[in-house]
Amino acid sequence: MASADLLLHPVRLRVVQAFLGDRVLTTTDLRAELPDVPAASLYRHVGVLAEAGVLTVVGERKVRGAAERSYRLVTEAASVGAGDAAAMSPEQHRRAFATFVAGLLADFDRYVDRSGADPDFARDGVGYRHVALWQTDEEFAAFLGELRALLRERMAAGPGNGRRRRIVSTVLLPGD
User: Fold this and answer.
1) Would you call 37 exposed, middle or buried from its count of C-beta atoms within 10 A (0-12, 13-18, 19+)?
2) What is the pLDDT of residues 125-142, one digit of tens each?
3) Cα–Cα nearest to 4, from 65, 89, 114, 62
């Protein structure tokens, strides 16, 4: 598991998100997906994530005399471990959550900008909502287990067969 400081840097968070869905990408692919990130900065952050074991090299080929590496996300390493999360102060959690929310806002803005003057939110499956669940701690733990199992099952499908990559983000908070 990676540390919060490593993963919750805004650029590194976007790099990790680009790899979600079992994608294999080169830095050239990443530059196309993150055109607003300067190339030197992108290369530096990819190097940091690779050195930390969050990205792994799965291929290499020569391009105009230079080695171009293909990377894949190491899913288990791309999350803040329970121990690190428990050791974080409330202020560190606030900063981490603010980074997460800022990332969501930026993703939404990029979606709207790419969609042009008339995005079709329904067709694209874009949604955001709050719901309330009345559950005991035991019922909520069971719900989380079911949700994790469902997400693992869906994540295993992989690309192909007309599938479109979808990003699902969750926030769970007590409602009191």
Assistant:
1) middle
2) 999 999 999 999 999 999
3) 89
